[in-house]
Design a protein that fits this description.
Length: about 230
């Protein structure tokens, strides 16, 4: 016996945010909650894979529940378990909260299929009543580069270096849907960010982060409107 669910029955749209660091993009989401930019929305959980992530403090200051689960301690405490088992455990934490959207905001861990298949409904999870339930929850990720340009880590530094070599005229940032291949999912929001000749990387990075704070809110609002439109 199985059933399918994609949202709760309340009108408030439920968001889970996964972080690894300072949480400035999380803060942008928190600041936008229940404003015209992100109406009828609530961050119901912030999950970090780093215990010292400042984003956990941001969440606590906003009275948002937090959770912590890191890969290496998980493997140490569960002999025989793998990285994929860890991903499945993260998925179980997420699915249990019944979110309408999952946002990876500076989450520095590549998710495997074991995470994605539990979140997107290809595989179900048994509840306390023994009934297997599948969930279809969209997952989006913020990446500081344009589609196909600088996938993976250190995208800002690589783009800046490429500009200095004359290989590119500008860079940008995007929010995309998460798939197995790193930073290859369908873009939700894309924004170009110019690099000024002679400027230090810190100036470019600051401008790019401001854009990130805008598009992460825009993308969350766009995807939520697709899966759970605001009741007007």
């Amino acid at each position: 016996m199985s059933s399918t669910t994609s949202a709760t029955t309340t009108t408030t749209r439920r968001i889970i945010v996964l972080i690894s660091g300072s949480g400035s993009n999380l803060q942008a989401l928190i600041d936008a909650l229940n404003t015209p930019a992100l109406p009828d929305a609530q961050v119901i959980l912030v999950l970090s894979n780093r215990k010292a992530a400042y984003g956990l403090q941001r969440a606590a200051q906003a009275n948002i529940p937090t959770a912590y689960l890191a890969l290496q301690p998980y493997l140490k405490n569960n002999p025989g378990k793998t990285r994929e088992d860890y991903d499945a455990e993260v998925a179980k934490i997420v699915v249990k909260e019944k979110p309408d959207l999952v946002v990876l905001a500076g989450w520095m861990h590549i998710m495997s299929e074991k995470f994605l298949e539990l979140v997107d409904g290809r595989k179900g999870l048994k509840g306390d009543d023994g009934v297997e339930v599948t969930h279809n929850i969209p997952v989006i990720n913020l990446h500081p580069a344009l589609p196909g340009a600088f996938d993976g880590a250190h995208a800002i530094e690589r783009a800046y270096e490429a500009f200095q070599k004359g290989e590119i005229a500008h860079s940008g940032a995007m929010v995309h849907r998460v798939v197995k291949d790193v930073d290859k999912g369908e873009p939700v929001i894309v924004r170009e960010v110019p690099i000024e000749k002679g400027e230090p990387i810190e100036s470019f990075e600051e401008r790019l982060h401001k854009v990130e704070h805008e598009i992460i809110v825009q993308a969350a609002a766009k995807v939520l409107e697709e899966v759970k439109p605001v009741q007007r």
